[in-house]
Specification:
With 317 residues, this protein is of the alpha/beta class. The chain is built from 14 helices and ten strands. It has a five-stranded mixed β-sheet with strand order 7-6-8-5-9. Strands 3-10-4 form a three-stranded antiparallel β-sheet. A two-stranded parallel ribbon has the order 1-2. Strand 6, helix 9 and strand 7 form a beta-alpha-beta unit. The longest helix is centred in the N-terminal third of the chain and has 15 residues. It is globular and about 60 Å long.
């Protein structure tokens, strides 16, 4: 395992193949599923004038797929959806054979899947490393500023006590280290993208560490209840908004790069489609994605409705 591997990279690089029956609970809340057969793997390759937008089996990927599909539709491109397909192992193969045309991806996690030993030091280098490993029929478009990656996040009480805001960095928490407990997955203790890097890169050594999970419900609950003051939370987790957590900035990129990026079957997408998706990526930042995730996952709104509303608000449809 690369020392650069993080819980986020591992979670997205090796998402377990889920049964379609389990995934149906997500598709049922998206009206985009009406454009897809009941079996998301059913059907032949798209015809030459149809773009097929796929998504992996988690809520954020479905939302991103709806964003991609609707911005393509606004340019007069015929779109069908195959949401909630499964893991990257499945969707990557469907892209290679042309069954899918467009898939929302995360550059760092995709690179971890294609080259687990890679450790790029910039967003540009990450995208270049992915491109070098891609099947020649596939290509990356422009990456978005939006990232869904590991972070050091503090609860509202801790933010208030130490005068931390969304503009504060991990280094700003370092003076409080002797007074705080950090919660995260057990492996966070020994990883560079964990306590090792927090000390060497930002000078942060907590009083204590509590082994919980990788940005999941245990860490969220401990942070909410004050059992830990800081935790490893993914940057687009709706709990951040709901509980008024504060995500600390990571200017030295300890947690790598997980930019949202369209992965495409090159011969299946016109230049108009490329331009439309690149325009979308240019406007999609982490704050916007977090807000949309919160609407879908915390407020149970239809992801297609949320996607259309955001695209309209930024002038893309």
């Amino acid at each position: 395992m690369s020392a650069w591997s993080s819980p986020r990279r591992l979670r997205l690089a090796g998402v377990a193949v889920a049964a379609v029956a389990t995934a149906a609970s997500l598709t049922s809340c998206s009206s985009s599923s009406s454009d897809s057969p009941k079996d998301p793997l059913a059907g032949s390759k798209a015809s030459g004038d149809t773009v097929v937008v796929g998504s992996n089996n988690f809520a954020e990927s479905i939302l991103l797929g709806d964003l991609y599909g609707e911005v393509l539709k606004s340019k007069g491109i015929k779109v069908t959806y195959k949401p909630n397909i499964g893991s990257r192992e499945t969707t990557y193969g469907l892209l290679k054979n042309g069954t899918l045309t467009v898939l929302p991806e995360f550059n760092g996690a995709l690179l971890a899947y294609l080259d687990p030993k890679a450790a790029p030091t910039s967003e540009t280098a990450t995208n270049a490393a992915v491109t070098a490993k891609l099947d020649p029929k596939l290509g990356l478009l422009n990456s978005a500023p939006a990232q869904d990656k590991d972070s050091i996040t503090v609860n509202a009480a801790t933010a208030k006590k130490y005068h931390l805001t969304s503009d504060s960095t991990i280094a700003d928490l370092a003076p409080a280290g002797p007074e705080i407990t950090i919660g995260a997955s057990p492996e966070f203790q020994t990883r560079q993208q964990g306590l090792v890097g927090l000390k060497s890169v930002y000078g942060l050594t907590p009083k204590a560490f509590k082994a919980l999970d990788a940005g999941g419900p245990l860490t969220e609950a401990a942070l909410k209840n004050g059992n830990v003051q800081a935790g490893d939370i993914f940057t687009t987790d709706p709990t951040i908004t709901k509980e008024k957590f504060v995500v600390l900035q990571d200017p030295k990129n300890l947690f790598g790069f997980e930019n949202v990026i369209p992965l495409v079957y090159k011969s299946g997408l016109s230049q108009a489609g490329v331009d439309a998706l690149n325009a979308l990526s240019a406007k999609l930042d982490t704050a916007a994605l977090l807000d949309m995730d919160a609407q879908v996952q915390s407020e149970s709104k239809d992801p297609l409705v949320v996607a259309k509303a955001w695209l309209s608000s930024v002038g893309l449809v």
